[in-house]
Design brief:
It is a single chain. The chain contains 10 helices and 10 strands. It is of the alpha+beta class and 363 residues long. The protein has a 7-stranded mixed sheet with strand order 1-2-3-10-4-5-6, sandwiched between helices. A 3-stranded antiparallel sheet has the order 8-7-9, with no helix packed on it.
């Protein structure tokens, strides 16, 4: 994963409702706040970089806005500031970790680093994690592996929001699936939910009184809901196919790791103090050198993404054909130059943290 810039010396965090924040200031503020909460320096920098990079890429639901919630989990003992992440089982190419209630980013990156090391040795590695917490965007970890010339496949369990196809009760999380590969500065980075939309969008529509798009959610009786106040469950992406993908994520992230199923998990911000949320993660890492070979992979990768992008757009298209990760890369370039926009609540929280920890002007 690309690290965010180092801490600046003469920049300020905007107050609520003000302009965007630079990646450097956001990172410095997050590091300071996490350190004050007892998180070790290296872990604090990892979490801050992950949140900042995610917001830079335009994935605001899983970026900087999560920092206040993570700090709250540390304060309430849901997340462990200095976890003792331990190996439960180790068979070489397969490793099972107990995260000891770590912040999910800390646990996820610990798993990714082991996965990369073992894949270099065995050609393939799989690392499971139990006893963890929300780990943000799954692409943080798949891209971490891709940046090393490897192929990353990542998923996680998540508290239930999505009803099965033709069902009424939320059983599955929005259970992300992320796949990433890269070569010669180019990248394929898919990070998708298995629902039609994230629950954050439902909350935004409720806040502003805007109708939901058709197919996003259902009411308590399983009927399509366009009134956000009536939304009871999210709909799976592509009907029964999305349900199948959600079950794959649950099978890998929860069942395989010995973690609670999605419907047994508490939502972030609603957990009981003093114990982790028991989230499970699962990472697969592949070394191209062990299969067709690194040179063959590089050529095939360039052909795949290049041919896709070169496809003639439809006459009604408003943009060229893209591959997963292209919109996020362009967003990151723009936000690196112009700053990261923050919603008023997050901007206010960052302004308070910056004042508290001295990461504003003159720091």
């Amino acid at each position: 994963m690309t690290s965010a810039p180092a801490s600046p010396t003469t920049t300020t965090v905007p107050a609520a409702g003000a302009g965007p924040v630079t990646a450097a200031v956001a990172t410095a503020t997050a590091v300071a706040a996490l350190r004050a909460a007892g998180v070790p320096e290296d872990d604090a920098r990892d979490v801050a970089a992950a949140l900042t990079e995610t917001s830079l890429r335009g994935i605001d639901t899983h970026g900087l806005r999560l920092l206040p919630q993570y700090l709250g989990e540390l304060e309430q003992g849901i997340a462990t500031a200095r976890p003792d992440i331990s190996v439960v089982r180790d068979s070489g190419a397969a490793v099972m970790l107990d995260a000891d209630g770590a912040l999910g980013v800390v646990a996820g990156l610990a798993a990714a680093r082991i996965a990369a090391e073992r894949a270099r040795t065995h050609g393939v590695a799989a690392v499971g994690v139990r006893n963890s917490n929300h780990f943000g965007a799954a692409s943080v970890y798949s891209r971490h592996l891709a940046a090393q010339g490897l192929v990353g496949i990542v998923t996680t369990s998540a508290a239930s929001r999505v009803a099965p196809f033709s069902g009424t009760t939320p059983l599955y999380g929005t259970n992300p699936l992320s796949f990433a590969a890269a070569d010669d500065g180019d990248e394929f980075a898919l990070d998708m939910a298995t629902s039609q939309v994230c629950f954050g969008e439902i909350k935004e529509r409720r806040k502003h009184g805007r109708a939901l798009d058709a197919g996003w959610a259902t009411d308590a009786d399983g009927r399509p809901a366009t009134d956000p106040e009536e939304a009871y469950a999210l709909s799976p992406l592509g009907g029964y196919k999305g349900q199948g993908l959600a079950m794959v994520a649950t099978l890998l992230g929860a069942v395989l790791t010995g973690s609670p199923a999605d419907w047994h998990l508490e939502h972030i911000g609603e957990s009981a103090p003093g114990r982790s949320r028991q989230v499970g993660h699962f990472l697969i890492c592949l070394d191209p050198a062990a299969f067709g070979g690194a040179e063959s992979f590089a050529a095939g990768f360039a052909d795949l993404v290049g041919t896709t992008r070169a496809t003639r757009p439809a006459v009604v298209a408003t943009q060229p054909v893209q591959v997963p990760g292209d919109p996020q890369r362009r967003c990151a370039e723009q936000r690196a130059a112009d700053g990261i926009p923050l919603d008023p609540h997050t901007a206010g929280a960052f302004a308070e943290l910056a004042a508290l920890h001295g990461t504003g002007a003159g720091a």
